[in-house]
Amino acid sequence: MTPRSAPTATPKAGDPAPRMRAEDRRELVLRAATRVFGERGYHGATTDAIAKAAGVSQPYVVRMFDGKEALFLEVLGRALERVSASFRQAIAELPPGASPLDRAHCIGAAYGELLSDRGLLLSLMHAFVAGADPEIGAAARSGFLQIYRLLRDEAGLSPDEVTGFLAEGMLLNTLVGLRMGLEVDDDPAAAELVQHVAPTKHALLVQLAKARTV
Amino acid sequence: MTPRSAPTATPKAGDPAPRMRAEDRRELVLRAATRVFGERGYHGATTDAIAKAAGVSQPYVVRMFDGKEALFLEVLGRALERVSASFRQAIAELPPGASPLDRAHCIGAAYGELLSDRGLLLSLMHAFVAGADPEIGAAARSGFLQIYRLLRDEAGLSPDEVTGFLAEGMLLNTLVGLRMGLEVDDDPAAAELVQHVAPTKHALLVQLAKARTV
DNA sequence: GTCTATATCTTGATAGAC
DNA sequence: GTCTATCAAGATATAGAC
To answer: Burial letters for B31-63: b for 16+ Cβ neighbours within 10 Å, e otherwise?
Structure first.
């Protein structure tokens, strides 16, 4: 989709620098929205903050996505899709005779890479605790169950294995939400906690640490 | 504290019905705030909604707690205290020679009872994902670590056992946040998921189901 | 497609009576 | 201690120009 070589109608080739295709700008806004929603939650995030982060005007953000709620739902949907895609790829790359524990471990590693995108995971978390909201709650439930089924049916994990996997993931997300990185030097318990969450996944720790400063 | 038999100065005994001691009213507001904050998060909750839920005026809520943020911090502090107290009581009632797994199980049961208070757990969760906020984030980090230390030092669990325990707790909280109760009859995966989170704790399931409707 | 200007509504907080 | 009235700021959304 969107072949860069064939813009639809009004390319206007030689424009200065801030000029970009509408679809790219849309992507830019979505990324900014993911970051801001992740940081402050649905209610805490303002369309103005998102607009500023994306370098566009506030009314444009509202118009492009037909309102703040619709924008959040789109961010949520994309986040869920990215998690699903990441898991599916890990499953596809699984060695043939892998045990359930090995499978869970590999998928967990894939999840670890997602940790570098704080906004994505935290937008998900904010949605997960917003079950009381009619629209957001429904989308969040449906998305969570979709991931559950993926792990059970496509990864071939047992229900207990899936819940164990999800539990670890939720703790990880919570630590990211708390901004509890490695360099919490003011409290040794923090470092110990982070180091024991995913002892085998060193990459995770680096990402967690990075997530606190970035 | 607060002996009901000896009101401080102005008892005004024979008042109609809405009359109550200031301290009780304060407690009432705190409970309402816990519920509303849990439902909509810090930013989503309005002081007006809290006031209405408590049956008092909005300015009174603001004045009584010196602002919305201070009110949330107090709700958060009390929630943390209640979790700590609940854990400590479970630890005190532990049989002498209990294994780490037994200990974790008993403390988990205590946590299960807390699940009946949706507002409490969800106010905590909202705080945990608000690490970016200067005040709330600091309080949330400190509170989370306090619970970590309690489980490690007072319950005698190893760091790995503590993180396993916390992981299960975070998943449980997330399911409560999603309003994913037992009677999610429209999707069999939901029921399966809930039933596998805490297979040994039947009480939890009842509470989870209740949490969806109440 | 994108911006500026602005309407309108919400909300936290203050002032002051009782 | 508690309420009513009210203000000021902030935020979403709309109108319309370019």
So the answer is: bbbbbbbbbbbbbbbebebbbebbebeeeebbe
Selected residues 115-154 of chain B with any CB under 8 Å from a CB in chain A: 122, 125-126, 128-133, 137, 140-141, 144-145, 148-149, 152
**Alpha-carbon gap, residue B172 to B193, rounded angstroms:** 11
Is there a domain that residue A13 lies in?
no
Asked if strand C contacts B67 at the CB level, meaning under 7 A, the answer is: yes
Residue A78 domain-assigned (yes or no): yes
Comparing CB atoms, the residue among A43, A133, A193 nearest residue B163 is: A193
Q: Where in the sequence is the domain holding B161, given as residue range(s)? A: 75-213
Q: Is residue A197 a part of any domain in this protein? A: yes
- For chain B, 214 residues long, give each residue's pLDDT as a single digit of tens: 444 444 444 444 444 445 789 899 999 999 999 999 999 999 999 999 999 999 999 999 999 999 999 999 999 999 999 999 999 999 999 999 999 999 999 999 999 889 889 999 999 999 999 999 999 999 999 999 999 999 999 999 999 999 999 999 999 999 999 999 766 667 999 989 988 886 555 555 555 666 555 5
The C-alpha atoms of residue A128 and residue B72 are separated, in whole angstroms, by 20
CA of residue B40 to C1' of nucleotide D11, angstroms: 18
Overall pTM > 0.85: yes
| Residue type (1 letter), A52 | K
Min Cα separation B15/chain A (Å): 38
In a domain, B141, yes or no: yes
**Number of domains forming the structure of chain B:** 1
